[in-house]
Write a structure and sequence with these properties.
Oligomer: single chain
CATH superfamily of the largest domain: Ribonuclease Z/Hydroxyacylglutathione hydrolase-like
CATH architecture of the largest domain: 4-Layer Sandwich
Number of strands: 27
Structural class: alpha/beta
Number of domains: 3
Number of helices: 16
Radius of gyration: 28 Å
Helix content: 25-40%
Strand order of the largest sheet: 8-7-6-3-2-1-21-22
Shape: globular
Largest sheet: 8 strands, mixed
Length: 552
């Protein structure tokens, strides 16, 4: 990978060819001295594609093996797909972390949950501030997005300047925080930009993403005319949207209560950083029943149909404190993330079954995206004038559409996927090598490989079930009594088939040679094969099989 005279390279370990799990690396290599910079460290979600998984993150093994050369991790903003994996992966990286005040406030809460808050060297950098991590000289440029303090990252090196946009849009009225700093972008473009590494989420969407001010106006008009309880769900990280909902509630004579942990955490982080200061403290779930139905608005998590979210539990009528029914209204002030259609549909069906009225972005202007549509991308290329473009943060159809637009704007695009190492300088960019990539699953409080034995077994159990047998054998190899069979997800304990499988399993075991029944490892393997065969004959399935061999 090393160039004789040094090079500047980019390597995405996550977030390219997919949406989520952003983990990006830049390498500056000069003779005898290799240095790496990490940008963002986020999570993704299993969704319908991986129902056995809740939270995913990129495997950092490549850079963990080089952490003595890692100068730091810079966070562009506080969305989960850019910051959510820090608390889990930092023990493998052990580097300093740099973030704006709001992102740092969110991150501290996550680090406290994993017991790392006093271990991580977290440096707070003002929006628009600078960082010197030699050989990388870094500067933030303020960008509008659906969360406070989103920053594009200018990476200056002796071989050229790269602009890493993070997530952004060109919203003239973002309501919380300033608009994107187009003057700084134009100034950067005038000096010369080697490469633009840029968000591709909405590269297929013509026009403009829209403004938060329009959403605020429409929410106020909608909520003013409603009766009964009103619940609004949105992305918890959209602090401007939270403020818009609270102001609409105030105009309608309603108090606001929060339902859902992520909303409470984001509210606390926002207020710590001086946002939402014009609003009174939100009520808690315990306060809701003390307020008349026509005077309460519930801001609730679960816009994507997450099964354990507050809204999903309300829809199933099993939330301990909040209920909705005939005459009440739920407003989905959010878009449907691809892959979540079925989960959201289930929540909405359950709400309608209880007589709840729904309002969504399909019939009301109550949501705008935080990512740039094609007109905004064109404007960015006009301002920055990069020689080369590297589309990231999108699936292949998004990356390809972005590359086409970049080419029209006069930049030369390069399409990558996770693990590709592209040399940006010197000379014309080219993919020069690849790094091993993979995904890790957050399984409780541990990380396991997505394609390792644990998750492979989980998938087999999910689709084919599990069967366990307990078998007692004496030292002479005589089978004692009748095997005990347990097959959760396949057979009820009282099912007659359970007894039949146990009987057939016993018959097969008794037919084994006596010398095999006296040897533990051979007998255990034969027992698993016998159990698998007995169940296959009865049910036609191949479940996970285990046998507890008890030698007496």
């Amino acid at each position: 990978m090393d160039s004789e005279n040094g090079d500047l390279a980019f390597l995405p370990l996550g977030g390219t060819g997919e949406i989520g799990m952003n983990l990006n690396l830049y390498r500056y290599n000069e003779p005898g001295k290799e240095r790496w910079l990490a940008v963002d460290c986020g999570i993704g979600f299993g969704g319908s594609e991986h129902p056995e998984v809740d939270v995913l993150m990129a495997d950092p093994a490549f850079i963990a093996d080089r952490r003595d050369k890692l100068v730091g991790l810079v966070i562009t903003h506080a969305h989960e797909d850019h910051i959510g994996a820090v608390a889990w992966l930092w023990p493998r990286l052990k580097c300093a972390v740099y973030a704006t005040p709001f992102a740092a406030a969110v991150l501290r809460r996550k680090l406290a949950e994993t017991g790392l808050v006093n271990q991580v060297r977290l440096h707070v950098i003002a929006p628009g501030g600078s960082i010197d991590l030699s050989p990388f000289r870094l500067r933030f440029i303020r960008m509008a997005h659906s969360i406070p303090e989103a920053q594009a990252l200018v990476i200056d090196t002796p071989l050229g300047t790269v602009l890493h946009t993070g997530d952004w849009k060109l919203d003239p009225t973002p309501l919380i925080g300033p608009p994107s700093d187009e003057a700084a972008l134009a100034e950067l473009g005038a000096k010369g930009v080697l490469a633009l590494v840029c968000d591709s989420t909405n590269a297929m969407v013509e026009g403009h993403s829209g403004s938060e001010r329009d959403v605020r106006r429409n929410l106020s008009a909608l909520i003013r005319d409603l009766s009964g309880r009103v619940a609004v769900t949105c992305f918890a990280s959209n602090v401007a949207r939270m403020e818009s909902i609270a102001l609409a509630a105030r105009d309608a004579g309603r108090s606001v209560a929060l339902a859902g942990r992520s909303l409470r955490n984001m509210d606390a982080a926002a207020r710590d950083c001086g946002y939402l200061k014009g609003l009174p403290p939100f009520l808690t779930e315990d306060d809701i029943d003390d307020v008349p139905d026509d005077n309460i608005l519930i801001l609730v998590t679960g816009s994507q149909g997450e099964p354990r979210s507050a809204l999903a539990r309300i829809a199933q009528d099993n939330h301990p404190r909040v209920s909705l029914g005939e005459g009440d209204t739920v407003i989905f002030s959010s878009r449907v993330i691809p892959g979540n259609e079925r989960a959201i549909g289930t929540v909405q069906d359950n709400l309608i079954r209880h007589g709840v009225r729904l309002m969504t972005d399909q019939d009301h202007m109550i949501h705008v995206s935080g990512h740039p549509a094609r007109d905004e991308l064109r404007r960015l290329y006009t301002l920055v004038k990069p020689r080369y473009a590297v589309p990231v943060h999108g699936e292949w159809r998004h990356l390809s559409a972005h590359a086409e637009l970049a080419r029209e704007a006069g930049a030369t695009p390069f399409l990558l996927e996770d693990g590709d190492i592209i040399s940006l300088a010197p000379g014309r960019p080219a993919i020069i090598d690849s790094a091993p990539v993979g995904k890790l699953v957050l399984d409780g409080t541990r990380l396991v490989p997505m394609h390792g034995e644990v998750m492979s077994a989980r998938r087999r159990m999910l689709f084919n079930g599990l069967i366990v047998a307990s078998l007692a054998v004496d030292q002479a190899g005589t089978i004692l009594g009748r095997p005990r069979i347990s097959a959760p997800g396949l057979l009820d304990p009282e099912d007659v088939e359970t007894d039949r499988v146990a009987g057939e399993f016993l018959d097969i075991m008794r037919d084994l040679p006596a010398n095999l029944r006296r040897e533990d490892s051979g007998l255990a393997e034969a027992a698993r094969a016998a159990l698998r065969r007995a169940l296959g004959r009865r049910l036609g399935k191949r479940p996970m099989v285990d046998v507890h061999l008890i030698r007496v």
